[in-house]
Amino acid sequence: MTAETTKESQFFIVKTIRQAKDTCTQAVKDYNEKYIGDVVKKGKDFSEGVKKDARMLAERVVEKGKKLKPEIPGTKLVERAVEKGKSLMPDTKAVEKKITSGFNAVAEKVNLPSRKDIENLTAAMDALNTKVDTLNKKYSM
Length: 141
Prior knowledge:
This protein is mainly α. The chain has a domain at about 1-50. The chain has helices at about 5-50, 55-70, 75-90, 90-110, 115-140. Helix 1 (about 5-50) crosses helix 2.
């Protein structure tokens, strides 16, 4: 073999490896788009829906259950129990208010500063730092 033939064969190997890499990469992308993309999108949509409204999740689960096996004995009893449970479910805002007020009460008893206290302290510290900087500049000259 001559030096030129050896060089060409090395380039052929490199080209073949690159083509194989590109082919594999494209195959993985196609697979992801075809099989995984929809599942991930549906999962994201579902999780966003659950974040917005937990009742929506319960209703979807119940509806899917009805479609799977509508002739299960006791279905009407379960439906009535679900409806009663929905009516007894507290409003999300009310629950959030109760939890927040509980945390605030604990913070007050432990004497933790509130967000407003920390913001006021930070503003006072910034003002103090500004004054110290101006005094340092004034007396360093």
